[in-house]
């Protein structure tokens, strides 16, 4: 996994936690930290999380290393 994908994964996890807080407690952590949903900084964070989600979408179609690897001779 590349550094970009790791950063995207962290941002996606942050977004998932934020959506969980919104869903369960009606509390938007990003908006609370950065000055409301309409502030420029909040919108940048939301945008970065959205782009990170799109980058991570590629992980769905990337074969797992274990699946793509040949079985060991003793496993045959």
Question: How would you concisely characterize the structure shown here?
Answer:
Helix 1 (3-25) packs across helix 3 (40-57). The protein is mostly helical and 76 residues long.
Describe the structure.
The chain is mainly alpha-helical and 76 residues long. It has one domain (3-63). The chain is 67% helix and 0% strand. Helix 1 (3-25) packs across helix 3. It is elongated, with a radius of gyration of 18 Å. The model has no long low-confidence stretch (mean pLDDT 87).
What does the secondary structure layout of this molecule look like, with pairings?
Blueprint: H1 3-25, H2 29-34, H3 40-57, H4 65-68
Helix pairs in contact: 1-3
Taking the alpha carbons of the first and last residues, their distance comes to 29 Å
Q: Count of DSSP E strands?
A: 0
Biggest sheet, in brief? none
State which percent range the strand residues make up: under 5%
Task: Describe the oligomeric state of these chains in a short phrase.
Answer: single chain
Low-confidence stretches: none
The percentage helix is: 55-70%
Globally, the shape reads elongated
Rg, rounded, reads 18 Å
The count of helical stretches stands at: 4
Average predicted local confidence, pLDDT: 87
**H/E topology pattern:** HHHH
Into how many domains do the coordinates divide? 1
Classification by helices and strands: mainly alpha
């Amino acid at each position: 996994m590349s550094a970009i994908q790791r950063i995207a994964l962290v941002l996606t996890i942050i977004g998932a936690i934020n959506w969980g807080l919104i869903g369960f407690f009606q509390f938007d952590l990003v908006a609370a930290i950065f000055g409301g949903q309409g502030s420029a900084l909040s919108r940048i964070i939301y945008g970065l999380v959205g782009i990170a989600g799109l980058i991570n979408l590629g992980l769905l179609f990337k074969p797992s290393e274990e699946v793509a690897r040949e079985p060991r001779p003793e496993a045959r």
